[in-house]
Design brief:
It contains no helices and 31 strands. It is an all-beta fold and about 425 residues long.
Length: about 425
């Protein structure tokens, strides 16, 4: 059986290196447990006039993370990105080029959870979400290089196992570890199980623009994507081909313009699902049942770009990203918005520990829609929308995990 824990904590404020221990209620073991961390750059819950996002994953030995930033209230946009493969979380100092991050941490697993070591570390108690899953067969964090030609690419796992879930994430960098940021802003996250259900999300914010120019793009039937920040055009896209005995194969239908380094976490064990649904348009308070998971989850993660179009970049679109999660008891969400086509930059963050997902408006940072976890179902989960935009059926993507089928082996993805 898998063990899951969703929680949150405040970063320590002491001098670097600063350490802290997080108790998740079960043992986490390197190679069979996975840990996600994500945050904005807030010390209090609610909305704030700023634009920062950090997201990372660890298998207990190898860690990788991406980060995005877009400064608020500047006449010429300041948008930056970064990615590192020696940290589980790296928080950008600002939206400037070639700038060191303000806060970073590594992680080690313990008998009761995990320990973090922050170096560098500022005297700011930033709030951070985590989702921990233990009791898996194999977990591997690694990276590969985007080819600059179309065609199949096979990823061979160092652990030589057959995954039943893969997440891919990147921030358009050419080297595997980067100690300094680069412009412009960008983040890419995708997931697949090999069942024919997969998704990819990309956001981008131009740097040095007197009129802000931001983009977002989402698509099913994609396992890795990125955008050209100056136009919003697809700069790279790969589609799923196969799960293999020691990895997977995808097909680059759009060749990358550069040989970017891309991170992944590959998992064997438990049951996993990666799919999407559209938010209900019924006025709050209203429940919505998601019944496409195929099993009863023990935890799930929700991701959205506040986009009602599911197959292309949106011209004159704000850049939005929100990620939330729950284990059925605790829940929490973090969001970033970057408003498009305004004279001075207008960015917002939102962080809370009371909702499974919170989607915010780019114009003022107010809550557009948000939902509580209501119940786990035999084939999915139920959300309760306490605030709901009745005009826009935003797409929401989910990653769900549950126990393996008894007697059917542990290497099971979501099989339709």
């Amino acid at each position: 059986m898998v063990s899951v824990s969703k929680g949150s904590f405040a970063k320590p404020t002491g001098g670097a290196p600063a350490t802290q221990s997080i108790n998740v209620g079960f043992q986490m073991t390197a190679g069979t447990s996975v840990l996600w961390l994500w945050c904005t750059k807030q010390t209090a819950e609610g909305s704030a006039n700023q634009g920062f996002y950090a997201f990372g994953v660890s298998d207990g030995t190898t860690h990788s993370c991406i980060a995005d930033a877009s400064m608020d209230g500047v006449a010429s946009s300041q948008a930056a990105r970064n990615q590192r493969n020696v940290k589980i979380l790296s928080i950008l100092a600002n939206g400037n080029d070639v700038t060191a991050p303000s806060d970073e941490c590594t992680v080690s697993y313990t008998a009761t959870g995990f320990d973090l070591t922050w170096n560098p570390n500022t005297a700011n108690a930033y709030l951070i979400h985590y989702l921990a899953v233990a009791g898996l067969d194999n977990v591997e964090v690694g990276n590969f290089t985007m080819p600059i030609v179309t065609g199949n690419q096979t990823i061979t796992l160092a652990g030589a196992f057959q995954p039943n879930f893969v997440m891919i994430f990147s921030a358009r960098r050419l080297t595997s570890d980067n100690t300094l940021s680069s412009v412009p802003g960008a983040m890419n996250i995708s997931a697949f199980t090999g069942s024919g259900k997969d998704f990819a999300l990309s956001v981008a914010s131009e740097d040095g623009r007197l009129t802000m120019d931001t983009w977002k793009w989402q698509r099913q039937n994609s396992v890795c994507t990125k955008l050209t920040p100056t136009t919003g055009a697809v700069d790279a896209r790969a589609i799923f081909v196969s799960i293999n005995s020691n990895g997977w194969t995808h097909d680059w239908t759009d060749a990358s313009g550069a040989a970017d380094i891309v991170y992944y976490v590959a998992i064997k064990g438990g049951q996993w699902a990666a799919d999407e649904f559209t938010k209900t348009l019924t006025a709050a308070t209203v429940t919505q049942d998601i019944t496409t998971v195929g099993f009863q989850p023990k935890a799930y993660m929700l991701l959205s770009l506040l986009n009602a179009v599911n197959n292309g970049a949106i011209a004159n679109s704000d850049s939005n990203i929100c990620i939330g999660a729950t284990d059925g008891t605790a829940e929490g969400s973090a969001a970033m918005t970057d408003e498009d086509d305004v004279a001075d930059s207008d960015t917002y963050n939102n962080y809370n520990t009371t909702k499974a997902i919170t989607m915010t408006n780019a114009t003022n940072g107010s809550v557009n829609s948000e939902a509580d976890h209501s119940a786990f179902l035999s084939n999915g989960f139920r959300l309760s929308w306490t605030t709901n935009d009745t005009n826009n059926a935003w797409y929401i993507f989910y990653i769900a995990v549950g126990d393996a089928v008894v007697g059917a082996g542990r290497n099971r993805g979501h099989v339709m």
